[in-house]
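job 3f2a | input accepted
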Amino acid sequence: MSGFVGTQSSSSLVAGVGQLKDAHIKQAEQLISNVPARLYKMAHNTLGAQALIYALLLHENNQAQKVIQLRYLASNLPANIYTQIKSILEDIGRLSIQYRLPLIEIALPQLRLMPINRYEAMLTQMQHLVYVDEQLTVFEWALSNIVANYLQAEFEKADVKRITHRNLQSLYKDIEYTLSVLIHEFAAENDFDSILKSANKEISGSTMLLLPKHQLSIEGFANSVNELSKLPPMAKQKVLSALIVPIAFDKSYTPQE
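job 3f2a | predicted structure (257 res):
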């Protein structure tokens, strides 16, 4: 549901995961029609699509970190891709956040045409962009993860995740870690206690605590999400019901959420 903003209950959000409705398609078409023409055109060729992905992963609010990221890309990218990145920085800076995921979705099919060595390099470079500043940027991680999963499905043999965790008790620490990240990222501080109480109710017997923000990292978040992905479907649904509480608590959803 790319770029969707709305007001739904947490239960309806969980129930709607993976469900595509006519309203979703109509809203997606409207979002795509409003993507700036220059960026839309770039998304339809292989070099431009690569440049877009890198540009969308650059730090929005920290110019010092953005300079470090650009310096890294200048040293590690082919010159023709880096030149295209530089040419669209102002356009990306003005791009409202709700258009970012639709733009990535347009660009993804073009990435299949990359040579295998560019694919391997791109995975490494995206990881560097997300982790370079050691700050918690869930949205950047989500975008890079979408691209990485798509590329791995195209360039590598299918990696079927095995169900290695049969019960939630063994993963309480991972649920607690992921929940803490989402609370700090998306919730108002005066709602923290109420959100934690509601999330604990979703998982019988859990007594999860809110971890301090300084103990959290995007890498730790990624590792915990990976462990939770190895649960069976019914257990995943319970976890999702708890993790969606910080997002659904105020009954209003931003494009990042």
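job 3f2a | The longest helix spans residues 138-155.
job 3f2a | closed
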